[in-house]
Amino acid sequence: MLCCMPGVAFVPALLVVWSSAAFIISYVIAVLEGHVEPLVPYISDTGTKPPESGIFGFMINISALLGVITMYIRYLLIEKQNESSHFVRSSFNIFSLCIGLMGCIGMGIVATFQELSVPIVHDIGALVAFGSGVLYITLQSILSYKSCPQWNTYFMCQIRMTISVISCIAFIPMIVFASRISMTKIDWTPGEK
Questions:
Q1: Where in the cell is it found (predicted)?
Q2: Does residue 146 lie in a domain region?
Q3: What total number of domains does the chain contain?
């Protein structure tokens, strides 16, 4: 099986490195071009105006593809482990994969529809990406606990669940504050709300 092939472990690492590079490169270009303020802009703000918008969109779409590959490898790994241990229903693993794939589709939407060009589509994509991402992380944490101790250590399960809890906690204010913003723009003047 693909998940048991030597070398597939590089895919999640490549996903992290590529995604980080996408954010950092578009941020650096946006700051150097004067399109955003250097102090903590929204990720989407760094991919709104050319030339960084093209780089941002291209690299995030590649990240979404790498995410799909990573999630599919994880799905196959859980299926293979489950053949001998029967620690989870196959439908739970499939459901988790589908949620993860939805998050990747959301990433593709965010990358393709820039924040200022089509804000409603961009915002829906971001909501799908982040919401599905948080749910996927939580489902994977549950899978880790179910496969413990044969396929995971309790320490690893606790790390994954901590990340899940932090993600859930961070998702709530993101939704609250994003819903309070009535307009999408990058340049704010001191007198605006």
A1: Endomembrane system
A2: yes
A3: 1
